[in-house]
């Protein structure tokens, strides 16, 4: 394929066009970004290379729950940057212990296992569940099964895409990792039918984020908990996107007073600064992990631990959960007005919304492009759904601006 190099163009191009050309020429096309090039951010707002400001209503897929450049997180990161950033786990460092203790306390679990990306944390949960299945439950070696949900999103590794139902995410990556069974999300009877004596875990998102902010039927998480208890199966909740205050509680499972056996955390755990992920579980589960049986060069490094610990401290006050509830109520009220006016349905929990755009009006993608012209950044989830997840530090005026912009876009 021939490339037109940016330098070859004789026409003057805007900074935006120049950056997009560079990206398209040299960075693999694994995303289809909106045509905006961001260069700075503060709180809920970002600025592009032309000096235009936008309200960030994607918030890094909820990695930016505390907004851009939160002073408390930046200060802690900068302090740690100048002190010690990486030791490897071949030695102890003075940041991991306090972080692990505080995160264990936040989750109500006895131990944590730190990783970096969300997908790595999911992989960790899968490995722990299988090993627990063989060593504790007594599943015959090589037979362990994990039940996952149709419409799931758990990351991009070869094992994780092996049980994805998204054709684009899975095509041409075979052979796939065996040992997974899929059932419809929200269907407790189907789940019960899929669980047998080989089952070591049920893996689910308490709300499916990438699936379009899909909230399961009331009582479903309770049913999953009860089934896992009676079948002797680990309930593994992927709270990477739903957790850490987004829904108005620290964890989305808490809305049904459900405590999973394993929490999988990521995204906002790194404060929008650094990739930090972890799983949290009790000792009877996590103690199957022994030296050499799992690891990561960067997982649990002092910089990650320092930032993660500050995030945990910020969550302990409950103030961000409160912001998610009050701003979320305001967003829900505003979005409710749009149903019937270009919007077919709205699902919200805390400051998190899935907005189904009427197919007669437009597509999710088109609406996001139009929102960009109104100074709002958002991203479609699946086809017709626009996912809204502003930083929890947004103001009431910001929420009103978002609702007004979406109303104007949907009015055509
Ligand atoms: C984003 C996400 C992941 C994957 O996290 P990465 O950091 O991108 O690897 C896994 N599960 C859920 C629910 C997510 O939203």
Automatic annotation (TrEMBL):
Give cofactor(s), names only: pyridoxal 5'-phosphate
Q: What class of enzyme is it?
A: transferase
Q: What's the source species for this entry?
A: Nocardioides guangzhouensis
Q: What is this protein called?
A: ornithine aminotransferase
Q: What pathway is this protein a component of?
A: Amino-acid biosynthesis; L-proline biosynthesis; L-glutamate 5-semialdehyde from L-ornithine: step 1/1
- Give the superkingdom in one word: Bacteria
- Molecular function terms, GO-annotated: identical protein binding; ornithine aminotransferase activity; pyridoxal phosphate binding
- Alphabetized CDD domains for the sequence: OAT_like
**Record has Transferase as a keyword:** yes
